[in-house]
Design a protein that fits this description.
There is one protein chain. This protein is 65% helix and 10% strand. It has helices spanning 5-32, 39-42, 57-68, 99-102, 120-148, 151-175, 181-211, 217-249, 255-273, 275-282, and strands spanning 36-37, 44-50, 73-76, 82-87, 111-118, 178-179. It has a four-stranded antiparallel β-sheet. Strands 1-6 form a two-stranded parallel ribbon. The radius of gyration is 25 Å and the shape is elongated.
Length: 299
């Protein structure tokens, strides 16, 4: 594949600058607006009801929203006509109608199967465990990259991972979409997906550093991107098609997960190509760092 090295290098520097700018904006959004934590983290009420199988969520949700004066998540359960309702714990002293009363306009045959309350302490514990899982994942990835690559090359992959996670968090802070356990699962999945792209390109860079020691690092990076570009696009494209179908057909319960994955795949591909190759270059990565050391023999 023939590439114009000067133009390719300029584009890598430009996209890296854009990535860093967006990353700083995302950090600012998270710090100022914060995340809209879901009931998994803040606590709430979970009720399971049985209705006629002909009733849809679009009929249930407006009645519950009007009766409870808050947004209510209506999730289809495993059987026809069975629904899981999730909403925040009402304030102390606030009298609200029962679920049966609220849904009476659409059905008189309503059975409340069970109701459970997730307290704030349980929600805080889930938040702490989720943050710990994210930290442990990042530390394991850091250890793996440090073992496999020289630190300059590993730094690009690690920074690309941070970029992807921060960008997803910034999007959820900007839109104030609910951040729940499914979104956290998507963030952890993004780490693995982005790492795969970064390692493929980093492996190619390492091979070229050893095979072409006289080449400049700019040319090596550009050649590595060119050699892996088609594979990266095919992999990302097919994955985006799957996540896109999940977004369109999965419904409300999977919307946050699908959106987080969709953004993560795009930013992961972007950052692996731009940030993952430019940062080691700025840190002074050279072919000498991967050439075998010559041991002088004393007479």
């Amino acid at each position: 594949m023939i590439i114009n090295m000067k133009n390719a290098t300029k584009w890598r520097y430009f996209t890296s600058a854009v990535s860093i700018t967006l990353m700083l904006v995302s950090i600012l959004l998270v710090a100022t607006k914060g995340l809209n934590w879901g009931l998994d983290f803040t606590g709430g009420v979970v009720s399971e009801v049985q209705l006629s199988s002909k009733i849809t969520s679009s009929e249930i949700e407006p009645l519950l929203k009007a009766g409870l004066h808050q947004d209510v998540a209506v999730i289809a359960s495993g059987e026809p006509g069975r629904w899981v309702l999730r909403y925040a714990i009402p304030e102390a002293g606030q009298e609200l109608p029962t679920i049966t009363d609220m849904l009476a306009p659409i059905s008189t045959d309503i059975t409340v199967l069970n109701t459970s309350i997730v307290g704030p302490q349980v929600g805080q514990e889930l938040a702490d465990q989720g943050g710990l899982a994210l930290l442990v994942c990042m530390l394991c990835i850091l250890g793996y990259l440090s073992y496999r690559f020289e630190w300059r090359l590993a730094s690009g992959s690690l920074f690309a991972l941070l970029h992807d996670v921060v960008f997803v968090l910034g999007f959820f802070a900007l839109t104030q979409m609910e951040f729940n356990l499914t979104v956290l699962a998507a963030v952890l999945a993004i780490l693995g997906y982005s790492l795969n792209d970064s390692i493929i390109i980093a492996d190619r860079i390492r091979e070229l550093l050893i095979a072409k020691p006289k080449w400049s690092i700019q040319k090596i990076n550009n050649e590595a991107i060119a050699a892996t570009f088609s594979r990266t696009m095919v992999t990302s494209g097919t994955t985006l098609m799957t996540v896109g179908a999940l977004w369109l057909l999965g419904g409300g319960p999977l919307e946050g997960f699908a959106i987080a994955m969709f953004i993560g795949i795009i930013t992961g591909t972007w950052s692996s190509i731009s940030v993952g190759t430019t940062l080691p270059e700025l840190f002074g990565l050279k072919p000498e760092h991967y050439l075998p050391k010559v041991v002088s023999e004393e007479p």
